[in-house]
Amino acid sequence: MNVALRHKKTSVRSIRSMLDHESILTNKYKFRKMKTMKISVMIAVMSGLMITAVNCKKDDNNRNLQAPVQKEVNLQTSATLGKYLVDKQNRTLYFFSDDPNGQDSCTGDCQAFWRIFNVDDLTAEKLGDGLAISDFGSVNSVSGKKQLTYKGWPLYYFAPLVNGTNTPEASGQTLGEGVDNAWFVAKPDYTIMLVDAQLVGQDGKSYKSDYTEGIGKTTYFTDDRGVTLYTFKLDSLNKNKFTKPDFSNNNVWPIYETDKVVVPSILDKTKFGSINVFGRTQLTYKGWPLYYFGQDDQTRGFNKGISFANPGTWRVPGTSIGQAPQ
């Protein structure tokens, strides 16, 4: 009886031992399987990352291989003219002195010689170095087509007669500079420009070049954006007699503050200079200090100041003005 019982217990222990051994083997198998699965997942993740990295690199390479944006307007440099605007084919662009109000004034036969320039959807990326998109705009030309402007000036090409046919200038040519004393290369750094316009005073009346009432254009100086400049009749040679030391009246007749002289080629640069006005620099022409008129409100084409106080007290400067008195 005891022998049988012992045998039974031994058998039970053997079975349990076998079960435990099987369980250990099973767990080892499961552990190995889990480990294998983890490794497989890690390999898959790493492969995915590598593929993504390769694709990103390909995308970067593709972007780098894309053609650069075409520069529609660039700056060219001449030993005689300095910097000026050209199109993508290096053809020169011009300003017209008859466009003081920023509108295309080239009509009739003029249009055959001076072709409008335009670029649709101009962006900063399409501009060469040294040019700012904020300086560009557009107007409707006389023909009704869009025309690009720079600092408020409509832009043109020159097409002179060649064997009886109007032919656009070749790349790099500047034959239009100074034509009719009215056409000038479009420069980014003018400090003086010439305009030819009707004088209309603050009183609403039209004036001629001698400041008597009447119709007739006057050629005079503006700044680079077409804003009219003036001289004061009571000033003397290189002496500002209007501006107060505290500049309390500077809003009425603001001084033109610059010492740079960048002008159309038909003007004599040596006639310009500058003076010190209570610590500020004012540009002069033939010894006359140059001013703005506050009520022109920095608006191109306005010349209201010519009738302020009395017609001729404040005059627009031009090449015909005499030397300032001592």
How would you characterize this protein structure?
The protein is of the alpha+beta class and about 325 residues long. The chain folds into three domains: about 1-65; about 75-185, no CATH class; about 195-315, no CATH class. It is about 20% helix and about 25% strand. The chain is built from two helices and 19 strands. It has helices spanning about 1-65, 110-115, and strands at about 75-80, 80-85, 95, 115, 135-140, 145-150, 155, 155-160, 160, 165, 185, 195-200, 205, 215-220, 230, 270-275, 280-285, 290, 315. The strands form eight sheets. A three-stranded antiparallel beta sheet has the order 5-6-7, with no helix packed on it. A three-stranded antiparallel beta sheet has the order 13-12-14, with no helix packed on it. Strand 16 (about 270-275) and strand 17 (about 280-285) form a beta hairpin. The chain starts with a helix and ends in an 11-residue tail after the last strand. The model is unreliable at about 1-10, about 15-30, about 40-45 and about 50-55 (pLDDT under 50).
